[in-house]
Write a structure and sequence with these properties.
Elements: E1 3-4, H1 26-33, H2 36-47, H3 55-62, H4 67-77, E2 82-85, E3 88-91, H5 93-104, E4 114-121, E5 128-134, E6 137-142, E7 148-150, H6 156-161, H7 167-183, E8 194-199, E9 218-223, E10 229-232, H8 234-237, H9 242-250, E11 271-274, E12 279-285, E13 289-294, E14 300-304
Antiparallel strand pairs: 1-10, 2-3, 4-5, 5-6, 6-7, 8-9, 9-10, 11-12, 12-13, 13-14
Bound molecules: zinc ion (ZN) (2 copies).
One zinc ion binds at residues 187, 189-190, 192, 223, 225-226, 228.
């Protein structure tokens, strides 16, 4: 899985949908929170479960003695990041999003470079896998054949909240969740609308490196709103499909409990592509071979034995 972020300049498919107008510019929004006291107010409300907090409570929690100063900063946040209600001040949805982005560490922190041994084998050669953590992401790679299982960007919160021994499984769940979001039509970055499509090496939109790879197709997800783009092997993207989740469930396997690269019955290359029209057949063998078929938009078509 590889990613890029590149604004697409708006949603081409937005015709006919409810209009969304910017109430303030992004610059003005950032200016509203560009003060340590305002960030402290947002964090105080977050720590109080989003509020409500009275003005006096906020002032006490952020340790600001001057009520005039405190009023000035709280007023700046009001309407957009904080709502003033009869019960007191509350964090607005925009306030929650901002605090969430800060707490994820994506804006303020970087990941320490570290290599963790992954307790499972390479799907290409059976060699040992390691996870190389970098400033903003992780690469899970085979020490023998150098095959990259996955290399997503990840938020620092992921590395903070789990012990390093569990990180490979956590990275697996994180990347799988991106596919679940995509299968539901949402961008994990901006919550905008995404489209998915199957790309083969000869397609003009195929990435340069794809030609000569062992897999015959990639599932590409593209966000109309923020331009985030990433790809996954069809066998990995298929794990977000209810029919596949159910198939594993019927065999006593919870997809959340083992990394997708160590799953029984599935290898990254276990895919056949049929063209004109394009269909992707993902083969899964859990004792009884099954094939799950997807169309060119990676919509589920059928399962056969
Ligand atoms: Zn290998
Ligand atoms: Zn997006």
């Amino acid at each position: 899985m590889t990613e890029r972020n590149e604004p697409n300049g708006g949603n081409e498919d937005s015709a006919g949908s409810a209009p969304v107008e910017d109430e303030i510019t992004p610059e003005a929004a950032f200016e509203l929170v560009a003060h340590e006291t305002r960030i402290a107010v947002l964090q105080a409300l977050q720590a109080a479960g989003g509020g409500p907090l009275s003005f006096g409570d906020i002032r006490e929690r952020i340790g600001l003695t001057d009520p005039g100063q405190c009023h000035y900063h709280v007023d700046k946040l009001c309407d957009h990041f904080v709502w003033s209600t009869d019960d007191g001040y509350r964090l607005s949805p925009a306030g929650w999003q901002l605090v969430g982005a800060l707490l994820s560490g994506s804006i303020t922190a970087t990941i320490d470079e570290e290599t963790v041994v992954v307790g499972s084998s390479c799907t290409a050669c059976g060699g040992d896998l390691v996870a190389h953590f970098r400033q903003s992401g992780v690469t899970i790679i085979c020490t023998d054949c150098r095959f990259v299982q996955t290399d997503p960007d990840i938020p620092p919160a992921l590395v903070d909240d789990w012990p390093s021994s569990e990180l490979p499984e956590v990275v697996s769940r994180y990347t799988l969740q991106m596919e679940v979001d995509a299968a539901h039509g949402f961008c994990p970055n901006c919550r905008g609308r995404v489209s998915r499509g199957v790309v083969t090496p000869t397609d003009v939109s195929a990435p340069d490196w794809f030609d000569g790879e062992t897999i015959e197709a990639l599932v590409v997800t593209d966000c109309h709103r923020c331009g985030k783009w990433w790809h996954a092997a069809p066998s990995v993207a298929a794990l977000a499909e209810p029919a596949v989740v159910a198939l594993y469930h019927d065999h006593g396997i919870d997809l959340r409990e083992q990394p997708w690269w160590a799953l029984d019955g599935l290898t990254v290359g276990s895919t056949t592509v049929r063209k004109d029209p394009l269909y992707v057949h993902v083969h899964i063998d859990l004792g009884e071979p099954k094939t799950v078929v997807f169309d060119e938009a990676f919509e589920f078509v059928e399962t056969y034995e």
